[in-house]
TrEMBL record:
<feature type="compositionally biased region" description="Low complexity">
    <location>
        <begin position="218"/>
        <end position="233"/>
    </location>
</feature>
<feature type="region of interest" description="Disordered">
    <location>
        <begin position="194"/>
        <end position="238"/>
    </location>
</feature>
<protein>
    <recommendedName>
        <fullName>AB hydrolase-1 domain-containing protein</fullName>
    </recommendedName>
</protein>
<dbReference type="InterPro" id="IPR029058">
    <property type="entry name" value="AB_hydrolase_fold"/>
</dbReference>
Length: 408
């Protein structure tokens, strides 16, 4: 029986069916790269339909698992597999982008152990229950998960640089705008101040009158008594009055113009912070560091005991990042390598490989444009790395047992 390797793609936060390229471009391309390396297998892919990336993560995982189970059962039936739970004819590679990688990892863990990592750590921050980590794993997984391949999934959290670099950039822009506003204010305010000085100077230079002003008439006295707060008109150019109005109008106009510019640039201005906080809104799992660590540790256990592959192709900014500014305070503190994900430094976390984007100018855009060849010069390298990782994870004994079905 010719066996099937099923690649199942899962989009991330607010993603959809087009996350992996228009017209299923990336999955189709990846299969074309894999076929020469795995000629004995039937290669297929599925894209999990658009789902709500909100609410409880465990519920989301359960819905995906049920959907996957039905799809694999249909494939096993079509293959005529005698005992799919003992010797499956279909093995699955779960492929997730961003938060989709966490859904994939949670699914693999729940199938292998009937346990969920999400919500397993008390809110008081105590250490995780080590007993759960030592519970026996189910080697007869169904569906059988051969590997979990992630694309820029923040398994260990979102890099602080995503927010810090964005904030630094926005601060620089804000400082520039405020400088321009200060210049406008000095023009208006300076004109008004000069006019006031001129008016004051004229009043001081005016000669003293030799003859007293004639006494007010009774009618004029009555009008003055009815309007005690009204100030008498002064001489001079009159700029003091109109200058105040012009200053107010200039300030309003400047603020309006700045607000309009900010509105037109709202996507760029809020891009980094919005994506970071939006991921946290998806049940807040990225904010629970102990759960993140435990999830990765559990995937490493699946890798060691059940030979389940685990890897992450994470984005890293290339040449364009250095062109933004010569000196960056954030870069000095956080380092030169700008990534969307926190990258493991010491602990084992699987096969993590950088996916460098020399065109992207910030971490968020690199994260969102991974599967767009026009926006990601490293698209071919990304595809080749994904191909090699998947091919290396395929169990050789299972692969060699795949044979062409000969019909009588």
């Amino acid at each position: 029986m010719k066996k099937t390797l099923l690649l199942c793609f899962i989009h991330g936060f607010k993603g959809n069916d087009h996350t992996f390229g228009p017209n299923q471009a990336f999955p189709t391309h990846l299969l074309s790269l894999l076929r020469p390396l795995l000629p004995k297998l039937n290669l297929e892919f599925l894209i999990y339909p658009t789902y709500e990336t909100r609410g409880d993560l465990t519920d989301c995982v359960n819905r995906f698992r049920d959907w996957l189970l039905n799809k694999v059962i249909d494939l096993e039936v079509s293959l005529g597999t005698p005992s799919p739970t003992v010797e499956p004819g279909v093995r699955v590679i779960l492929i997730g982008h961003s938060m989709g990688g966490i859904v994939a990892a949670e699914t693999a863990i729940s199938i292998a152990s009937e346990q969920a990592i999400n919500g397993s750590i008390p809110n008081n921050g105590n250490s995780p229950d080590q007993g759960n980590m030592k519970a026996p794993l189910n080697s007869l997984m169904f569906p059988y998960i051969q590997a979990v391949l992630a694309f820029d999934t923040p398994y260990l959290g979102i890099s602080p640089g995503v927010v810090a670099h964005g904030a630094e950039t926005h601060y620089s822009k804000a400082a520039e705008v405020m400088g321009q506003l200060s210049g406008l204010a000095s023009i208006w305010g300076g004109a008004s101040s000069n006019a006031a000085k001129e008016n004051h100077h004229q009043q001081r230079q005016a000669p003293q009158k030799a003859i007293e002003a004639p006494p007010s008439t009774q009618k004029q006295q009555q009008q003055q008594q009815q309007q005690p707060d009204q100030k008498p008109q002064t001489g001079g150019s009159g700029w003091g009055k109109w200058g105040t109005l012009a200053l107010a109008a200039g300030a309003v106009g400047a603020i309006t113009a700045t607000g309009a510019a900010a509105y037109l640039k709202r996507e760029q201005i809020t891009q980094g912070l919005t994506w970071a906080t939006s991921h946290l809104e998806f049940v807040g799992c990225l904010a629970r560091k102990e759960e993140l660590r435990k999830r990765v540790a559990y995937m490493m256990r699946l890798n060691k005991e059940l030979n389940v592959g685990f890897g992450n192709l994470y984005t890293r900014l290339g040449k364009s990042a250095g062109a933004l500014e010569k000196v960056s305070m954030v870069g000095t503190v956080l380092g030169d390598e700008r990534t969307f994900c926190v990258v493991p430094q010491r602990d084992q976390a699987g096969d993590w490989r950088p996916a460098i984007n020399d065109k992207a100018r910030d971490e968020t855009w690199a994260h969102m444009s991974m599967f767009e060849p026009k926006e990601n010069p490293g698209y071919d390298k990304l595809s080749a790395d994904a191909r090699d990782m998947i091919a290396s994870w395929v169990n050789q004994e299972w692969y060699e047992s795949s044979t062409e079905t000969i019909h009588a």
